[in-house]
Amino acid sequence: MYKKIIRPILFKLDPEFVHNLTILAGRFASFTRLSILLRPLFVIKDKKLETSILGIHLDNPIGLAAGFDKNARLTKFIPDIGFGFMEVGSVTAEPCEGNKKPRVHRLVQNEGIVVNFGLSNHGADKIFKRLSKKKFKIPVGISIAKTNDPSIKGKASIEDYVKTFKRMRSIGSYITLNISCPNTGDGKTFEDTILLKMLLKEINLSRKSEKIFLKISPDLDKTKLDKILIIADKYNINGFIVSNLTKNRKGLKQEENLKFPGGISGKYINKKSNLLINYIYKKTNGKFIIIGCGGIFSGKDAYEKIKNGASLIQLITGMIFEGPGIIKKINKELIDLLEKDGYNNIKEAIGKNVL
């Protein structure tokens, strides 16, 4: 129904308008408690899918990636369509308008999206107040980043980042440091190893028992990635989200919307993400928890990431193209794949493709 009737209508409308409409509909459904009626249609529970990482229990390993619920409006709604966890943000110290519109474009032939939001969000203070007294049905991670302001440089950029960390660290199950956003005004990321060392040193001075992940680019070369892995180990980072949007467009089918600036999501980065997951898992002997993200449209896609070393999975674009039923579909397919391979639980499959 979604692909044949709903999607053709939605895809005639501006993508950001549809995104905002979806947020509004989700808020309405949770406020009126209509979303509870959706649970039998979307939620599936099975012991094979249950898992835990870093003391965090999850009913299933499929999560909503940061970038969809930027302002933490859907924490009540997302559990009712089957997700096992979610990540909000990215949140920045100061409110951000983001980049000029239009800043989201569909790549229909490539089953992807050009994303150029530029860290648009309401800012740490407002989002903290929105979440501080809420009880979550599923684990919620908070993605944070540097305020998108080119005038914030050097030491000031570290201070800006740490300010957000201090404000948001008491919310949710873990914090993600989005060190790889490709759409900021200054064009720089904290994947620069000098900046990353400075950042993590300051974060650790303020850190208590927070679980911390780094979100990295699929475009990292192995030399830089190896340095990041060493730094992450030194500063007791718990894991990685692999991966963010790609800036590389080589090999994409040519279509009109490729002319627009921004990072690319969707099927195009599936293989890139899998290779990075495999490399990190093998290089570190599975020391870090890996959350696989990028190009997940089926249970097979999710299973490949798990067998390459991911403990959990995140998606957005697959849901945009396949509809909200994709979460239940992926979970059901994962159960079938686990049974076929003789595994009793998802944890048994982690890293099985790593030689």
Describe this protein's structure:
The protein is an alpha/beta fold and 355 residues long. Helix content is 35%, strand content 16%. The radius of gyration is 19 Å and the shape is globular. The protein starts with a helix and ends in a 15-residue tail after the last helix. The model has no long low-confidence stretch (mean pLDDT 95).
Summary?
The protein is α/β, with parallel strands linked by helices and 355 residues long. It is 35% helix and 16% strand.
Intertermini distance: 41 Å
What is the succession of H and E elements? HHHEEEEEEHEHEHEHEEHEHEHH
The name of the CATH topology is TIM Barrel
Main β-sheet description: 8 strands, parallel, barrel
Spans of at least 5 consecutive residues with low confidence:
none
Number of helices: 11
Residue share in helix = 25-40%
CATH class: Alpha Beta
CATH homologous superfamily descriptor? Aldolase class I
Spatial sequence of strands, sheet with the most strands: 3-4-7-8-9-10-12-13
Give a count of the beta strands, DSSP E runs of length 2 or more.
13
Tell me the number of structural domains: 1
Question: Which class of secondary structure composition applies to the elements?
Answer: alpha/beta
**What is the arithmetic mean of pLDDT?**
95
Proportion of residues in β-strands: 15-25%
Computed Rg: 19 Å
